[in-house]
């Protein structure tokens, strides 16, 4: 994965007070690949990535969870998250989704406000949401950090 993508995501996460440590590139485990779908199981990757401390594992492969055609990412509250850049065409959108997934890690749920935590089921929906938390979510995160 391009170093520039990782550095810019790190900067975006630091803006929400998360310290970023590069864990170096990891190989995606073959057992998480579903050849009938041509995608990796995001839940299996999340288990594989378990790490001490909060984490965001950015992958460049297509991912899914049961019941959905694809996901941009998947988070485990107070643990970490997987983010796939496979379907994300711009750095701005990658940063939004990184902040969104880490919001879940910090305990936030999807938000109905004009907020980065708004649920996105399509690229259009990601593009329409802002790259920052609404006042309510900002308050919730401030209390956790």
How would you characterize this protein structure?
There is one protein chain. The mean pLDDT is 89. This protein has a three-stranded mixed β-sheet with strand order 1-2-4. The N and C termini lie far apart (29 Å). Helix 1 crosses helix 3. It is α/β, with parallel strands linked by helices. It has a single domain, classed as Collagenase (Catalytic Domain) (3-Layer(aba) Sandwich), CATH 3.40.390. The radius of gyration is 14 Å and the shape is globular.
Please render the helix and strand layout as text.
Blueprint (H helix, E strand, L loop, with lengths): L2 H12 L18 E2 L4 E3 H7 L6 E5 L3 E2 L8 E4 L3 E5 L6 H15 L17 H6 L6 H10 L1
Parallel strand pairs: 2-4, 3-6
Antiparallel strand pairs: 1-2, 5-6
Helix pairs in contact: 1-3
Main sheet: strands, sense, barrel: 3 strands, mixed
* Domains, number: 1
CATH class: Alpha Beta
Strands, count: 6
Q: How are the strands of the largest sheet arranged? A: 1-2-4
User: Can you identify the CATH superfamily?
Assistant: Collagenase (Catalytic Domain)
CATH architecture: 3-Layer(aba) Sandwich
Measured as a percent range, the helix fraction is 25-40%
Mean pLDDT: 89
Assembly form of the protein: single chain
Order of helices and strands: HEEHEEEEHHH
């Amino acid at each position: 994965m391009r170093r520039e993508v990782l550095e810019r995501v790190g900067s975006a996460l630091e803006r929400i007070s998360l310290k970023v440590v590069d864990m170096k590139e990891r190989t995606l485990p073959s057992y998480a690949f579903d050849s009938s779908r041509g995608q990796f199981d995001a839940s299996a990757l999340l288990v594989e990535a378990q790490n001490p401390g909060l984490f965001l594992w950015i992958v460049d492969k297509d991912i899914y969870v049961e019941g959905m055609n694809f996901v941009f990412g998947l988070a485990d509250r107070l643990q970490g998250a997987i983010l796939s850049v496979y379907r994300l065409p711009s750095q701005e959108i990658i940063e939004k989704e990184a902040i969104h997934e880490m919001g879940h890690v910090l305990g936030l749920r999807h938000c109905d406000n004009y907020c980065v935590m708004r649920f996105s089921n399509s690229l259009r929906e990601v593009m329409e949401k802002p790259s920052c938390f609404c006042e309510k979510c900002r308050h919730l995160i401030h209390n956790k950090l």
